[in-house]
Amino acid sequence: MAAGANPRFLQLADVAEILNTSTAQVYALVRRGELPAIKIGGRGQWRVERSELESFIQRSYEETRSFVKEHPFSEADQDDARL
Q1: CA separation for the pair 39, 47 (Å, rounded)
Q2: Which stretches within 1-83 are classed as H helix?
Q3: Exposed, middle or buried, 15 (CB in 10 Å: 0-12/13-18/19+)?
Q4: Cα–Cα distance between 7 and 1 in angstroms, integer?
Q5: How far apart are CA 28 and CA 18, in angstroms?
Q6: CA-to-CA distance for 22 and 61, rounded, in angstroms?
Q7: Contact 8, 48 (CB under 8 A)
Q8: For residue 1, what are the CA distances in angstroms to 7, 8, 10, 15, 48?
Q9: What percent of the chain has pLDDT over 70?
Q10: Is residue 52 within 8 Å of 37, Cβ to Cβ?
Q11: CATH label, 9-82, candidates 1.10.1660, 1.10.3470, 1.10.150, 1.10.10
C-alpha cells in the first residue's frame, strides 16, 4: 500500500471532507478532546491519525445508538421533521 494513497495522518480539511462537515467543526472536536490529534511543526499544523478517526466514528455510532434507545422516536419528532 502506497503511503500517498492511504496516508496514516490526515489534515483537518481531509477529516472535514470525510465527515462532510467544516474544518472549523473538526478543529472544535480536536480542541475539546473528542477527536485525538497531534500538533506538528512550529506553525501548529494539526494531524489526525486515520485509526483515531475510525475510532471516533465508531464511538459516534455507539453514542447515537444509545441516544436513540433512550429517546424513542415519537409523533412530535415526526411533526418536527416535516417543518
Answers
A1: 6
A2: 12-19, 23-31, 50-70, 75-82
A3: buried
A4: 10
A5: 16
A6: 19
A7: no
A8: 10, 11, 16, 20, 19
A9: 84
A10: yes
A11: 1.10.1660
Tens-place pLDDT, residues 35-45: 999 999 988 89
Where in the chain are the domains? 9-82
Set of cell numbers at residue 72? 424513542
User: What predicted TM-score, i.e. pTM, was given to this entire model?
Assistant: 0.78
CB-count burial class (<10 Å; 0-12, 13-18, 19+) for 34:
exposed
Q: Cell for 76?
A: 412530535
As a dihedral over the C-alpha atoms of residue 33, residue 35, residue 36, residue 40, rounded to 10 degrees, the angle is -100
